[in-house]
Amino acid sequence: MAPAGGARSNLVAPDSAGPRRSRRARFLALALALVLVLGVGVWATWAAVNRGSGDQIADGDAHPGASATEDATPEAVDLQPDLEQLSAPGRVAAESDADATNQLTQALFTSAPVVIVVGTAPEDLTEILATANSLAAPILVASDDLDLPAALAEVSAQAVLAVGEEVAVPAGVTKIELSDTWHEDLREELGPIIEPQAVSGEERAAFFQGTESDFPLAASTAAAAGFPAEYLGESSLLAAAPDLTAVTEMLLVGTQPPAAETLNWQYAVLNQEKTLPGGGYELFAGKRYVALYGSPGVPALGVLGQKDLDGALELAQEYAGKYDKLTDDEVIPAFEIIATVASAGAGADGKFSNRLPVETLRPWVEAAGEAGYYVLLDLQPGRTHFLEQAQEYEELLQLPNVGLALDPEWRLKKDQRHLQQIGSVSAKEVNEVADWLAELVQEHELPPKMLVLHQFSLSMIKDRSDVRVDHPELSVVIHADGQGTQGAKNGTWKALHKDAPAVAGWGWKNFLKEDHPVLSPKETYNIEPPPELVTYQ
After folding, report:
1. How confident is the model at residue 37 (pLDDT cuts 50, 70, 90)?
2. How many other C-beta atoms lie within 10 A of the C-beta of residue 495?
3. How far is it, in rounded angstroms, from Cα 112 to Cα 284?
4. What's the farthest any 2 CA atoms get from each other in the chain?
5. Distance from CA of residue 23 to its chain's centroid?
6. How far apart are CA 385 and CA 387, in angstroms?
7. Angle (CA) 335 423 527, round 5°
8. How far apart are CA 259 and CA 218, in angstroms?
9. What is the rounded CA–CA span in Å between residue 432 and residue 277?
10. In this structure, is the dihedral angle defined by the CA atoms of residues 14, 15, 19 and 21, taken in order, positive or negative?
11. Any alpha helices (H) in 272-404, and if so which ranges?
């Protein structure tokens, strides 16, 4: 019998690595299964997230689930209007409240989601004005002169609150009757809304000629754009003297607003507070003037030249003080300085007029300004055109307290000499000076200037009725400067008033030596009508 070891030799010898391979295979299988389970979980999570977000899958197929946008809340409509910014003062010339309202809506609003449209305006506008205020909404008044569809399109109106059944709105614009439920109706038609905020009016101002009852709808529309309304009545803007130092945008509305260039000038003067002596922006609004007449350093030409500068300042105040108790108006001391003096000799230029240098006059002019006095530069031009001489003193006339006086007595024709006749000037020449002076006032943004025309004979100003007195930049004064008996002077005063142009004021001169007698201040103010300007020579 074979040995035991031989039997075993006929069998395949067992491999010691076999059991280990079996365990490894099982481990790999389990790991693979785990990876598959985790992968499915990640994919499921990704799919769920993307179905919730509504994103399309990368290959452009349809959403793997229903879109959530179908149930999203509609976007709220912002009712805040967008406004135009004015680069210059605006003017609205309108014959009616309706006309002014429509013009303001078109000028001030670039967009307005809600517009109030008035067909037939009720007598009581309370509801309309309250609604416009709460919505900061503009108003349009339906009329034959208004293209309503175009006006609504200009402001991209989405809804109209209509006053009156006859209001017809174009397609695409929701019409809601202005009733007690207008707010709920607006939400129902437009959906969620963002309520508008009132626009600050700290830097804006609107002025209306007339009273509050004249422009209620227009004033509401201006206020909706941040322009709070003020009413001028019959006053001009300068007479009203509002504080515009912080105002950057301004409107003026009325039947006859000033021209654009005039309004720009008035705004600039008010904005910069360029006031006149005595305060304010008008020469004769509660003011009168008492002036010393003459030329510095020339005693023979008048009382002003009989004093040095300090003495003249004191004397002017003394003279003006004598009139203070005689009037409720403020009495402003003044100088009337002869800047160009009529001369017997022709002079180097052959013009029979001696000019005082600007630098000679400047100390007097500036000292008077510092003291709160007004100054008139008086011209005795000889054979020189008044305008030519006036332009020589332009730098002094650029000061706010300096005006101009023309003395035709000393205006000569080419073959004339002084004291051989009374000189004269044409209305045309006076108007040329007035036009230039008005332009100077506007250009340098100055308060109005006094333009005095000396006259004691009707022949001194040819075609006087043609003299322009309508420059808003000027206050024209006719100054009666004849001398002699009071009977003669009063006769001249009455004659000059007859058929006179509508000047801003009248002047009277008291000659301290030549008048018989010299009127007292009380007697001077007893003249009818009392003069706004009194001068002493």
Report:
1. very low
2. 15
3. 45
4. 187
5. 97
6. 5
7. 50
8. 20
9. 27
10. negative
11. 309-324, 358-371, 386-392, 394-397
CA distance 292 to 337: 8
Beta-strand runs (E) in 370-462: 374-379, 402-406, 425-426, 449-455, 461-462
All residues at 6 or more sequence positions from 13 whose CB lies less than 8 Å from its CB, including other chains: none
* Helical packing angle, 216-224 and 126-135, nearest 10°: 10
Rg (CA), the chain: 44
In this structure, what token pair is assigned to residue 304?
């002003």
DSSP characters over 231-290: EEET--HHHH----TT-SEEEEEESSPPPHHHHHHHHHHHHTT-PPTTSSS-SSSSEEEE
DSSP state of 86: P
- Extents of the domains making up the chain: 78-271, 287-536
Q: Beta-strand (E) ranges in 158-197?
A: 159-163, 174-177, 193-194
Q: How many residues does the chain have?
A: 537
Which residues have CB under 8 Å from 141's CB, separation 6+? 97, 98, 101, 102, 117, 118, 121, 217
Q: What is the dihedral of CA 473, 475, 478, 479, to 10 degrees?
A: -110
Task: Report which of 478, 468, 400, 414 is spatially closest to residue 436, judged by C-alpha positions.
Answer: 468
Q: Using the predicted structure, report yes or no on whether residue 489 has a pLDDT greater than 90.
A: yes
Euclidean distance between CA atoms 88 and 70, whole angstroms = 50
By the 8 A CB rule, do 267 and 244 touch? Answer: yes
- The partner residues of 403 in beta bridges, in order of sequence, read 376
Which token pair is 118?
């008035």
| Cβ contact 445:470 at 8 Å | no
At a CB cut-off of 8 Å and minimum separation 6, what does 111 contact?
81, 82, 155, 156
pTM of the model: 0.83
Decide yes or no: CATH 2.10.25 for domain 287-536.
no
Mean pLDDT over 107-119 rounds to 97
Interatomic CA distance for residues 468 and 501, integer angstroms: 8
Three-state secondary structure readout of 26-85 = HHHHHHHHHHHHHHHHHHHHHHHHHHHHCCCCCCCCCCCCCCHHHHCCCCCEECCCEECC
Q: What is the mean pLDDT of the chain?
A: 88
CA distances from 316 to 208, 283, 378 (A): 40, 18, 17
Q: What is the pLDDT of residue 200?
A: 82
pLDDT digits (tens, 9 = 90+) for 290-321: 999 999 999 999 999 999 999 999 999 999 99
Q: How many CB atoms lie within 10 A of CB 193?
A: 17
| Average pLDDT of the segment spanning 403-410 | 97
- Adjacent-strand bridge partners of 386: none
pLDDT at position 476 over 80: yes
